[in-house]
Every structure is written in C-alpha cells, then in structure tokens.
Amino acid sequence: MKRESLDHVGLVVGDLDAAERAVRAAGFVPHGRADYEPGRRFHFDGDDGGECERVSYPA
What we know:
Layout: E1 8-12, H1 16-25, E2 31-36, E3 39-45, E4 51-56
Parallel strand pairs: 1-4
Antiparallel strand pairs: 2-3, 3-4
C-alpha cells in the first residue's frame, strides 16, 4: 500500500501581520511570504519539520 505524505498544513487567519508576529515570537522563522490573488500568505517550518502556512483573504 502506498502512503501519501502531507505537503503542509494551512490555516486561514484574519490578521496575517499579527499571525506573523506570533509565529516569530514563538521562535519560528517565516519564509515564502507572498501576495497573490485572492490573498496573502507565508510559510514556516514547525517543530516536527512539517511546513505550516498562514493565509489571509480580504473580507
């Protein structure tokens, strides 16, 4: 049986700048910040090495 791997986990947040400050305060280093249609996002590597994404869309 072939196991599929998880690429990353993403969470939608209301305030991307506040989310980035919280990620930095927790000791993580954001990367891959981008503005794109229809929103904005950044990624960081979690404690287990898995990639995490935070994304925000306009209201």
